[in-house]
Amino acid sequence: MTFILDIGGEGRHAGAWNLNPSPHKTLGPERGAPIPRLILGRADAIPLPAASVDRIIVERTPLTAAALREVSRVIRPGGTVVLRHARVPGHDPHATAKRVFQAPWRHRRTNLAGAWVEETEFCFPADSVALPAARVDNQMPLGQARRPSAGRAGAVA
Hints:
By secondary structure, the chain is of the alpha/beta class. About 15% of the residues lie in helices and about 30% in strands. It has helices at about 65-75, 95-100, 135, and strands spanning about 5, 15-20, 40, 55-60, 75-85, 105-110, 115-125. Strands 3-2-1-4-5-7-6 form a seven-stranded mixed beta sheet. The radius of gyration is 15 Å and the shape is globular.
């Protein structure tokens, strides 16, 4: 069985567990309704064991150092992480994640509910090891954390 975690989710992705600090939806016509398949928590302190999640979806949730550390900790080897954030001309909202995650990635622009967003999908190799927490925390600048081993990571086939 595939374990899918939607960080900041409110029930939009079928089959996903939704990590959210609020038990109620905050967007759309169902605002105030209970969030289905809820795990109470935040991206910077995911209440799950290490290497326990097959796929992580992050939309609109800020990509802080603590959030990237936690995503690195809970994604299993062979897992995927999908980031979707607002498109800002001249700025890559996933640049820090590309520097931190040591995983091949592919990027595309997609229309999500009428708005253009940047989507980057990271495919973690089956033999990957989670990034140690101290490497993404304040002990080392993010730009020096984990870099792809062969230059810039590129598109995944």
